[in-house]
Amino acid sequence: MTSPASPAGASLPAEFAGATSSEAGLRSFLHGLPGVDEVGAVGRASSLGTRSIKAASKAYAIDLAIRMVDLTTLEGADTVGKVRAMCAKALRPDPTDASAPAVAAVCVYGDLVEAARSVVGDTVHVAAVATAFPSGRASLAVKLADTRDAVEAGADEIDMVIDRGAYLSGNYQKVFDEIVAVKGACGDAHLKVILETGELRTLDNVRRASWLAMLAGADFIKTSTGKVVPAATPPVTLVMLEAVRDFEAATGRLIGVKAAGGIRTSKDAIKYLVIVSETVGERWLTPDLFRFGASTLLNDLLLQRQRMATGHYSGPDYVTID
Q1: How many domains does the chain contain in total?
Q2: Does the annotation count 258 as an active-site position?
Q3: Is residue 54 one of the residues assigned to a domain?
Q4: Is residue 202 in some structural domain?
Q5: Which one of 89, 183, 192, 222 is the catalytic residue?
Q6: Are 162 and 209 a contacting pair, CB within 8 Å?
């Protein structure tokens, strides 16, 4: 994975110094970003989603998508046994085919990080949701303790949620300061900042929140918790990819994007990979810079992979039930 992002404001061009030094500067910068042509974004995402690819490219795309999966279980009924079984699947997605690649990471609640790490070792990343996931409604002290506990238990990635209430109220400084503080609590762990785009209402808000998170030190920006509908959508992901492209052009820093929630089929995953390729280029076609947050997507990817290898579809009992 790429090296952690610099602390907020560090190594940023001079024109960003004022943007991160005060509430007024932050507001002026964010509202000075170019507006999003919503009709155009929806149309472009839809157009890219119709692209067809050749069989050889499809086989490569399916394996790439598997390597980009953050295999996830985030239910109140999660148990140590369920997490261990999921982690075994993350390491060896298809027990009948050793050529199937491992996933990028497993994503669990903080109290199950130790169980996950005991299975995956250093082979895949262990991501923990933190900061009062999924609502983000807790004191900063609680959020920082949540983060530190997960890192101490073995998480090397933290998925935090922003305070959407503060963001939608225009309290950008509070959101910014919390991201900076959580980034500090992560230590060497990477920070994914969840925007919960389904609650941000407009693509302009998605663009502003993306820039806010990146300026504050995010290593990844993530669409959703998976608990709100709509979750990830192609237009939202397109706008976030444009934001990381423009941020890299301005700062030289590469920031990842994670599309999470509602992506269930190989066809959908390949559509997203096309959007990534056409928007930010092949550099982002790596698990270091693009991820899928999913619980059921992996099964369909495996079934499609088996079909391409054997020429026929396997039944659903050929993959484990998550």
Answers
A1: 1
A2: yes
A3: yes
A4: yes
A5: 222
A6: yes
